[in-house]
């Protein structure tokens, strides 16, 4: 239902903007105070435009921005052969599609996009009723435990909100981050464009010394035709670039791993995010099982990224979950097993809080790396419904739910 | 490398012989060493030692030719600076020979056989190696051994530094995989091999070893992200300022004689001459920070434990030792196979012990 | 204005006594630390002493530094318009030639023509103001508002390392472009390692480049990462790692001071951003090098809205 309403709004949106299409897009962009593009909101920290990663608890990890700042490049690493990072990237792509953004999937065949998760149908998930939704989001926001500082920030924000809310009451699409259901497949809304696919370097070009050149050329063309041309009507649309499994031996030829190829590609990608800094966001996944973090190449890839988050699956956690599920099968809480983390999350490089400085999280809380303050570990859990990242606490073995509950601080919102 | 243990027995001999040899090598008098190689690292630079060499060479009017690969501000005392960057090995060889030949032989009559007239100082052999054929230099370039031996005339002494912690970029295409590593070749060719260490690092390691603690690690092996440790290039002195103090360092010297005998010794080069000996160079063991037992190096070291002023004897007579061995300690034989008869645990189980006659036993 | 620590407060009070000639500062950092404040500190010091400075970055664009410096009370934009600051952008175009030299598709050509982008600059010694503004026609607040003067974009260095070496010469030409003064200009370079590994330039060539720059500058600050994989080499290390370690340690041997930024060993704290360690480099050891000396120290630093504070461990910094 949230769906239908959104499409209505979008059409309304386009009709209103189209008549004024004479205004050059550039000016529109240079004054971001005008209506922000769909799916963006100003960062809670600095006011820079951010967009959601499609995973609410990942948004909360991003240095207090509560979203991925546009013009940044996120690197998701995964240390085993599992594909949790793939799930994150699919959420990311799905969020882009739902928000009507331009999604560019690089290096994967179209089949990748057929597995994007669908919107959750649970009422409270993608609820768009203004009053309830606002209150709820406010409540959820509080749970971003990491950023207590934002508690103060929320006050002025909330006070300025009623005006927005009034304006937005007819535009129920303002949900910043949707909730997805992995068991469903995303039906691409009529208002959105299907993802654009840039295929991986063809295998017959295995000897091609520059496997990234065609990818880069297409990306550049795509972006410059969208944004460099002032008359393009969609120059206010956000572009999400998703690069799953970068350098995967199954997708890329061996020559791709040479620093002169992959580093120059990432350098160019970084340059693109800076050139179109108000319109482009990138997320890349890389397997640190094949390319360990202890190699210089990966360190330099990380240096070229704006944020680096590693997923470190711990199979023992899953086994424990199985055991617990078996134990509590007769119990009342059927979701008990789902609450067990599947691995640890490490933030190796935090997205810069205030650009150009090392200030990570606003004013008083300025550690070098956000995300691990106080030495807390973070854990992730992928359930049927969502991916969550939360503070890690060892599950209690004997299934004593009462004891376990209070120790968990829920990040979900 | 861990510092040596202080050795009471040999120190007196080494104080006279090795220290003398070390001083002569440093002053380039009497004992010739045609090729001295100094190994240094980020933790301690060879520069204070090189400066000492240059200063002493100047004092006896040896002309110093400084071959600079990386140094932009060469020391002031040198007679000639050759910028070696970007030159081929052949050109460099010609230039060095020209510079050393040009220096007119002075005072040839006084111990000419022993004292070279030219000291050639090279600031980084790491940058020399890539020029040679072993290091993957340009084709038909000279090999390193030939280059060095061509320089070594009796009137020339070579003092070169090699930075041990700079990894060499391998040159697959041009090098012979079976040839010795150029760095090893340098170590083989030199007649005196010196390794320099930072005093504060050596002292910290010594203190840890004295307490049987694992020695701390410094430099690149120290804390992640900090490529140099504290105490790097700082010297060790209570009286001098930071600038002067850093002229001090510790070095391990290995001098190879023609006879095959080699002398190995650890020295401490102080930042100012010792008041008593008027000499900057002392044995490492004679430094109070390294060996607190040594107070005055030249006074007769006390023999054994001096217990003359104690009111009791700490020693045992032979009979006392025998008696001590004969004492049977309690429970000794209770631990033998049969259990013995020597001891028994007397314990009455109480109610709280939940004693079970069938299962439990003491 | 002085919310940034001065080089003297970082390197010791007698640092200013050193001759300002061919100084080399090696600034290392690890993933998760931001060395940008050291750059601002050096820039601020140069400007307040009336010196000239060139900032080269292959990792970040101008707006990055502009925004960051502004937070610390330094207006780079105005200095760009004056004659004492040149920014060399090694990010935007280095591997992203709009020229379509390799792209088969017809790329809607941006205002800049490729020919003007290449070639012209490297040959001209004193760089005349670049006519082309960095061609970012569409979004982005950046370059349209940027005065093209004193803003140099490195051209494309795709493919061979020869093209990249040409770009190094552009940097050198930029330094020489300053009118001769009594004091030589300063140079700050960030991301040289990326140029090296992404273009495959030989490490010896990079070292030569730094040497050549040192000959014509007063102080040169080189910022390099010092993450363990890039420093610790074994027999099985990749050429990238060996080259990086080679460059880093070679510069460490030539440097006057090594400034290492790292994270707090005990984890993340609210009021500490990281640890700054200053050690003396070999270049500072020569007796004849003047009265000044770099003083080794280990300090904590905290970067916040109120500026950058450096303070001794335990002193709390308040």
Automatic annotation (TrEMBL), chain A:
Pfam families: PAXNEB. The keyword Zinc-finger does not apply. This is Elongator complex protein 4. Belongs to the ELP4 family. Residues 14-37 have a biased composition (Low complexity). Signal peptide: none annotated. Pathway: tRNA modification; 5-methoxycarbonylmethyl-2-thiouridine-tRNA biosynthesis. One of its GO terms (biological process) is tRNA wobble uridine modification. Residues 1-42, 113-138 are annotated as: Disordered. Keywords: Cytoplasm, Nucleus, tRNA processing. It is found in: Cytoplasm; Nucleus. GO terms for cellular component: cytoplasm; elongator holoenzyme complex; transcription elongation factor complex. It comes from Orbilia brochopaga.
UniProtKB/TrEMBL annotation, chain B:
It is found in: Cytoplasm; Nucleus. GO terms for molecular function: tRNA binding. It comes from the Eukaryota. Its main location: cytoplasm. Gene3D superfamilies: P-loop containing nucleotide triphosphate hydrolases. One of its GO terms (biological process) is tRNA wobble uridine modification. Pathway: tRNA modification; 5-methoxycarbonylmethyl-2-thiouridine-tRNA biosynthesis. Belongs to the ELP5 family. Keywords: Cytoplasm, Nucleus, tRNA processing. One of its GO terms (cellular component) is cytosol. This is Elongator complex protein 5. InterPro entries: Elp5 (IPR019519), P-loop_NTPase (IPR027417).
From TrEMBL, chain C:
One of its GO terms (biological process) is tRNA wobble uridine modification. It comes from the Eukaryota. Gene3D superfamilies: P-loop containing nucleotide triphosphate hydrolases (3.40.50.300). Transmembrane segments: none annotated. Pathway: tRNA modification; 5-methoxycarbonylmethyl-2-thiouridine-tRNA biosynthesis. InterPro entries: ELP6, P-loop_NTPase. One of its GO terms (cellular component) is elongator holoenzyme complex. Residues 101-142 are annotated as: Disordered. Belongs to the ELP6 family. This is Elongator complex protein 6. It comes from Orbilia brochopaga.
């Amino acid at each position: 239902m949230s769906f239908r309403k959104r499409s209505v709004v979008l059409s309304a949106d386009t009709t209103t903007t189209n008549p004024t299409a004479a205004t050059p897009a550039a000016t529109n962009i240079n004054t971001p105070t005008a209506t922000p593009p769909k799916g963006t909101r100003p960062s809670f920290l600095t006011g820079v435009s951010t967009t959601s990663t499609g995973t609410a608890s990942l948004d909360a990890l991003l240095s207090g921005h509560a979203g991925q700042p546009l013009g940044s490049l996120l690197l998701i690493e995964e240390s085993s052969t599992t594909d949790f990072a793939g799930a994150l990237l699919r959420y990311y792509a799905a969020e882009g599609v739902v928000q009507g953004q331009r999604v560019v999937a690089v290096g994967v065949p179209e089949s990748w996009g057929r597995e994007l998760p669908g919107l959750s149908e649970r009422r409270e998930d993608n609820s768009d009723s203004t009053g309830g939704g606002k209150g709820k989001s406010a409540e959820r926001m509080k749970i971003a435990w990491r950023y207590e500082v934002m508690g103060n920030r929320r006050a002025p924000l909330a006070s300025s909100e009623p005006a927005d809310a009034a304006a937005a009451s007819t535009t129920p699409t303002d949900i910043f981050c949707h909730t997805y259901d992995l068991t469903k497949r995303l039906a691409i809304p009529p208002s959105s464009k299907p993802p654009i696919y840039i295929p991986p370097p063809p295998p017959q070009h295995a000897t091609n010394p520059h496997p990234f050149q065609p990818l880069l050329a297409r990306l550049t063309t795509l972006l410059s035709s969208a944004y460099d041309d002032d008359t393009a009507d969609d120059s206010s649309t956000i572009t999400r670039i998703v690069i799953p499994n970068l350098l995967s031996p199954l997708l890329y030829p061996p020559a791709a791993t040479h620093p002169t190829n992959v580093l120059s590609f990432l350098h160019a990608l970084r340059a693109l995010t800076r050139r179109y800094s108000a319109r482009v966001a990138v997320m890349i996944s890389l397997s640190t099982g094949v390319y360990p973090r202890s190699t210089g190449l990966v360190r330099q890839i990380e240096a070229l990224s704006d944020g680096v988050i590693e997923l470190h699956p711990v199979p023992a956690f899953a086994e424990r979950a199985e055991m617990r599920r078996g134990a509590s099968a007769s119990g009342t809480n059927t979701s008990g097993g789902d609450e067990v983390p599947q691995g640890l999350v490490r933030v190796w490089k935090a997205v810069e809080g205030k650009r150009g400085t090392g200030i990570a999280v606003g004013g008083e809380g300025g550690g070098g790396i956000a995300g691990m303050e106080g030495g807390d570990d973070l854990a992730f859990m992928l359930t049927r419904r969502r991916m969550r990242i939360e503070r890690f606490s060892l599950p209690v073995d004997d299934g004593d739910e009462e004891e376990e509950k209070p120790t968990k601080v829920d990040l979900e919102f | 490398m861990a510092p040596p243990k202080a050795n009471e027995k040999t120190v007196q001999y080494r104080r006279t012989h090795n220290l003398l040899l070390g001083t002569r090598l440093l002053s380039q008098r009497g004992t010739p060493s045609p090729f001295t190689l100094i190994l240094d690292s980020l933790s301690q630079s060879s520069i204070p030692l090189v400066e000492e060499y240059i200063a002493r060479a100047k004092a006896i009017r040896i002309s110093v030719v400084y071959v600079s690969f990386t140094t932009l501000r060469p020391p002031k005392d040198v007679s000639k600076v050759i910028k070696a960057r970007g030159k081929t090995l052949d050109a460099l060889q010609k230039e060095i020979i020209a510079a050393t030949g040009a220096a007119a032989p002075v005072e040839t009559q006084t111990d000419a056989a022993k004292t070279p007239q030219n000291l050639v100082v090279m600031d980084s052999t790491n940058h020399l190696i890539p020029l040679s054929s072993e290091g993957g230099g340009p084709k038909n370039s000279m090999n390193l051994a030939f280059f060095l031996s061509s320089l070594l005339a009796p009137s020339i002494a070579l003092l070169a530094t090699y930075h041990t912690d700079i990894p060499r970029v391998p040159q697959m295409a041009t090098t012979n995989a079976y040839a010795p590593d150029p760095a090893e070749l340098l170590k083989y060719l030199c007649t005196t091999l010196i390794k320099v260490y930072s005093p504060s690092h050596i002292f910290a390691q010594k203190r840890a070893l004295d307490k049987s603690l694992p020695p701390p690690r410094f430099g690149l092996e120290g804390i992640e992200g900090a490529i140099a440790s504290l105490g790097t290039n700082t010297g060790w002195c209570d009286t001098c300022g930071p600038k002067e103090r850093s002229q001090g360092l510790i070095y391990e010297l290995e001098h190879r004689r023609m006879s095959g005998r080699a002398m190995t010794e650890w020295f401490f080069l102080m930042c100012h001459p010792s008041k008593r000996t008027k000499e900057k160079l002392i044995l490492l063991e004679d430094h109070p920070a390294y060996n607190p037992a040594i107070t005055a190096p030249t006074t007769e070291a006390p023999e054994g434990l001096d217990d003359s002023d104690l009111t009791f004897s700490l020693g045992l007579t032979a009979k006392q030792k025998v008696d001590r061995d004969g004492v049977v300690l309690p429970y000794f034989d209770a631990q033998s196979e049969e259990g013995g008869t020597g001891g028994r645990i007397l314990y009455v189980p109480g109610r709280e012990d939940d004693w079970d006659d069938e299962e439990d036993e003491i | 204005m002085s919310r940034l620590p001065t080089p003297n407060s970082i390197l010791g009070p007698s640092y200013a006594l050193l001759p300002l000639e061919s100084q080399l500062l090696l600034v290392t950092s690890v993933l998760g630390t931001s060395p940008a404040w050291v750059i601002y500190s050096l820039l601020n010091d140069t400007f307040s002493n009336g010196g000239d400075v060139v900032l080269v970055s292959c990792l970040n664009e101008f707006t990055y530094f502009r925004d960051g410096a502004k937070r610390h009370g330094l207006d780079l934009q105005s200095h760009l318009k004056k004659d004492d600051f040149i920014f060399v952008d090694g990010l935007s175009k280095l591997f992203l030639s709009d020229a379509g030299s390799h792209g088969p598709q017809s790329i809607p050509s941006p205002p800049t023509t490729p020919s003007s982008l290449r070639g012209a600059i490297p040959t001209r010694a004193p760089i005349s103001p670049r006519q082309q503004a960095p061609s970012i026609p569409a979004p982005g607040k950046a370059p349209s508002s940027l005065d093209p003067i004193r803003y140099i974009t490195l051209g494309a260095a795709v493919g061979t390392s020869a093209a990249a070496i040409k770009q190094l010469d552009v940097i050198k030409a930029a330094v020489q472009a300053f009118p001769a003064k009594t004091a030589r200009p300063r140079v700050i370079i960030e991301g040289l390692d990326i140029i090296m590994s992404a273009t495959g330039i030989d490490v010896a060539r990079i070292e030569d480049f730094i040497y050549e720059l040192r000959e014509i500058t007063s102080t040169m600050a080189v910022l390099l990462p010092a993450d363990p994989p890039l420093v610790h080499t074994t027999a099985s290390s990749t050429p990238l790692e060996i080259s990086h370690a080679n460059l880093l340690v070679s510069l460490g041997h030539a440097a006057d001071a090594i400034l290492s930024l790292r994270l707090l060993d005990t984890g993340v704290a609210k009021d500490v951003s990281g640890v700054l360690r200053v050690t003396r480099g070999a270049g500072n050891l020569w007796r004849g090098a003047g009265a000044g000396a770099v003083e080794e120290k280990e300090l904590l630093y905290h970067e916040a809205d109120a500026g950058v504070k450096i303070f001794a461990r335990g002193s709390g910094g308040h």
